[in-house]
Amino acid sequence: MLDITTTKQAIKNRLKGRSSKTGKVADYEVLIIGAGIAGIGMACRLQQQQHKGLFGHKAPKNQKQVSSTNKQKPPQRFAILEKRADLGGTWDLFTYPGIRSDSDALTFGYNFRPWLDYRMLAAGDDIKRYIADTAHEFGVTEHIHYQHEVQQISWSSEDQQWSATIKNHASGEMFVKTAKFIVGATGYYDYEQGYRPHFEGEEDFHGQIVHPQHWNNLDYNDKKVVVIGSGATAMTLLPALVAKDNNQCARHVTMLQRTPTYVASVPGDDHAIDWLSGNFSPLSKEQAYTVLRARNVLRQQGLYKVATHAPKVMKAVLRSGVKKELKGSGVDSKHFVPDYNPWDQRVCAVPDGDLFKALQDKRAIVVTDQISQFTETGVMLQSGQHLDADIIVTATGLKLQMLGGAAVYIDGQAVDIGTRMTYKAVMIEGIPNLAALFGYTNASWTLKIDLACQYVVRLLGYMHKQRYQVAMPQAQTDDMTACAQTDTVMGSLSSGYVRRGKDELPKQGDRYPWFVTNNYLSDRIMLKYRKIKDDWLRFSR
Q1: Angle at 480 between CA 477 and CA 485, to 5 degrees
Q2: Cα–Cα distance between 400 and 232 in angstroms, integer?
Q3: Contact present, 91 and 129 (Cβ < 8 Å)
Q4: Which end of the chain has fewer beta carbons closer than 10 Å to its terminal beta carbon, N or C?
Q5: How many CB atoms lie within 10 A of CB 313?
Q6: 60 preceded by a cis bond (ω within 30 of 0)
Q7: Burial class, 445, CB count within 10 angstroms (exposed 0-12 / middle 13-18 / buried 19+)
């Protein structure tokens, strides 16, 4: 015979939504890993929803007091765990001269806190300051725990929560915290080390060898510098190292590249906000920002569409721009004409053609060749040319990594994220209550990050409303099965660092919502307006 009291209590618990099957209350409702632009953005979005409860934890104001012996402390709303000693992520890590964004500030900033600066490609220090100011304004700063590294996260289906193994690097202490939901906001690369190939004879070199991730106030004044690389970092370093208005100035800089990269000169400043919100305009600065942000988004998307659908046209435009910038410099434009199509790898943007202006000066050159070996005094090339150097900068790329290197376990079984598919480029196949934030590779990183954050907030709100405790994407429905493809969440980029790290990244699937569109307009519809519940996302109480 059924115990009526027990049955009524079970129904009551089901309707109210218990913290877990075992009744254990998590330390946090949401645990955010990383205090960079993604982590701070996620926290700000949660702060905007702070009046709403998650996972059924918010008690009504007239809730009766319970005895102290039965009272359980409710979970804290969220916390941010940051391995480094300060916030900023990329913009705290990289300190090399000239460090800047590679997309315009209007779309790089958060749309809930307009970036009204006129600089098109913002400097690294300005970006970090913007992130810090945003965190302070939204009351996020006090939720950040610095020098806290998440080394492992383990999901318990019985407890319906994550356990995060954390190391406090300040004290050396190891401890565990639990959370209902985890947001990985660590980006996609290893902060401890970049990609650093070994070069034959490098032990013989008498100068310094440094990777841009470990610049550490390098003294390069009046030195001969060879920068190995052809990506955004190398193209930023070259003009910055020879700039006479900096505290230091190199005697000579050579950018040594194995293959060319597409480069486009963009305006350094954009004063459109000022004139669009001027004395005779009905628009405020915030309204002008909205208009110009939309303009820039459409421009980015349009240029990407042209590059992918009419690559010959985009090639011709880029080549023409390079020839114009190099006119009279004596530098061959072949150094900036790759054999692949635009956006097979990223197109580098340089403000006001600063790279090309630096090449007009005889103190900076670009060389396209293969390295034979390092010598005592520099680099010997396969062509027989020798590049003298006091300092060699290995701007050779990034080493990819998920979740800041944290190991992932589900019910005691290790999970290889690189074998799973990405769901809406936010969640991971077969992993419950976890979001891994990725931005765009063909537009401003933050555009996609902010959409993903809004999706997570919508998902949590839906789970709270329906009293769900678990949300997990599954690759199979009653009549469909999604299959993994070779492309990763980073899209079809063929950049070296993406090829090297493809086994670390989640893969795309062969159908919606498992493939990545890299299209802001379609992603906006998918992540902001389409229903949360679909055939692929499984919920449980």
Answers
A1: 110
A2: 17
A3: no
A4: N
A5: 12
A6: no
A7: buried
Residues linked to residue 183 through DSSP beta bridges, in sequence order: 32, 435
Residues 541, 528: Cα–Cα separation, whole Å: 24
User: Which tokens in the block code for residue 315?
Assistant: 């090639």
Q: What is the DSSP string of 413-456?
A: EE--GGGSBEETTTEETT-TTEEE----SSS-HHHHHHHHHHHH
pLDDT for 224-245, tens place per residue? 999 999 999 999 999 999 999 8
What number of other Cβ atoms are within 10 A of residue 312's Cβ?
9
Nearest to 468 by CA among 401, 532, 388: 532
Q: Are 42 and 185 in contact (CB under 8 A)?
A: yes
Show the tokens assigned to 98: 């000239």
Entry pTM: 0.91
Give the C-alpha separation, 49 to 63, whole Å. 22
Whole-number Å distance between alpha carbons of 24 and 196: 45
- DSSP-based three-state secondary structure for 339: coil
pLDDT digits (tens, 9 = 90+) for 445-454: 999 999 999 9
Number of H helices, E strands in the chain: 13, 25
E-assigned strands of 170-262?
174-184, 208-210, 224-228, 252-257
Counting every residue written for the chain, the total comes to 541
Residue 409: strand pairing partners = 154, 414
